[in-house]
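Sequence decides. Our protein:
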Amino acid sequence: CGALACCVGPTRDNHLGKPVTRLEYEAFDAMTGPEMARIFERCRKELEADDGAHALRMLCQHRVGVVHVGEASVLIAVASPHRELAFRACRFLIDELKRTLPIWKKEFHVDGSHWVGERSCAALEPARSAIVRSRRARTAVRGCAQVVALSAAE
């Protein structure tokens, strides 16, 4: 390994000028692993990474449940023989994770809360609610600050 690039995404205390008190993430557990595997594969293909001189080792972790201001919501780490490839892969992974991974974010403010992002629109609410009901039951037993660990290493 010639380089290790990391991206840690802490919860900010504001969004669009409005104070944020905490976030809550919900995930479709049955799809996060398979979708992350597809993201890893797209990353290798897009960056022309192989098992030789351009090999990548990638790790993504995303919190689910309550995440307080200042706590990390997401961690991306990429090991590569060269720093340029590691940085590019790290950027690709965070962008794709935010774009396609079935994780929903709810922002809480002193005067209320709302779901964030296009995947949180009202049209998706019935499906999202059905998906997370079983997860909430498991969360009540295990605690709400879980981490979804998603990784690939060749």
Remarks:
- The beta strands are 3-10, 14-15, 18-19, 22-27, 57-68, 72-80, 103-109, 112-116, 146-153.
- The chain is about 35% helix and 40% strand.
